[in-house]
Design goal:
The protein is mainly beta and 249 residues long. Helix content is 14%, strand content 41%. It is built from 2 helices and 16 strands. It has helices at 210-229, 235-248; strands spanning 13-23, 27-41, 44-54, 59-63, 83-86, 93-94, 100-101, 107-110, 116-118, 123-131, 135-141, 146-156, 163-164, 169-173, 183-190, 193-195. The strands form 3 sheets. Strands 5, 8, 9, 10, 11, 12, 13, 14, 15 and 16 form a 10-stranded antiparallel β-sheet that branches. A 4-stranded antiparallel β-sheet has the order 1-2-3-4, with helices on one face. The radius of gyration is 22 Å and the shape is elongated. The two termini are 38 Å apart.
Length: 249
Amino acid sequence: MDYRFYETSKGDRFKVIYTDKYIDDTIYAGIDKIKAAYFEHNTEPFYAFEFETDSVHGTTDFYNEEAKTLRRAFLKAPVEYKRISSRFNLNRRIALYGNRVRPHKGTDFAANVGTPIVATASGRVSKSSYTGGNGNYVKIRHNKIYETQYLHMQKRKVKEGDYVKQGDVIGWVGMTGNTSGPHVCYRFWKNGVQVDPFKQKLPAAEPISENLKTRYLEYIKPIRVQLDAVPFKTKTDTLTEQNLITQAY
């Protein structure tokens, strides 16, 4: 899910409440889940609290202190890519075909073979198949308006009928089908027509339902008190911790 700040400023600070992972209750295995966070950007405060909104599908989201969602309806890209090798272009001309117009109705994200491909939004898998041109591909129906498709996979992870959440891995980058290099061709449908996702005014993610809002606001009260009580680490604190680690070794 896309909660990132792409630019930070000097003086920005944050604090987080999270759970740890342990193997056999003894071996530390890193951070498990972030439960709540506070980020101060240019002195402006931002709160984020994790909350389960769908126990059937195990769906959790992050909301602020006013129960407003912090998630985009769609991620900007389905993969961590190196570059966009080809954009959506209905007037594309290809020299190999006599400079004739061959529309490109997708966005190609170049990435290494084996790079995970994720669903850009939650929905149900309507197709998980193989064709000569598409190679291994997956198509997801998100609602009555939007669908997305992911082409040229090395391998598919999901099957038709599966419910996937935004950010779930659905396959891996490959070179199957009609392609000259490793990438995922990302196709975006609106009302049955393929469109350029970068030129769409996409909706915000669905807000928390009214019947859950009251429960959410009660749920975050003690967590916010706990979060507010967590002190910010100073540069001196960090240097002290580093010195203690060095001495321990």
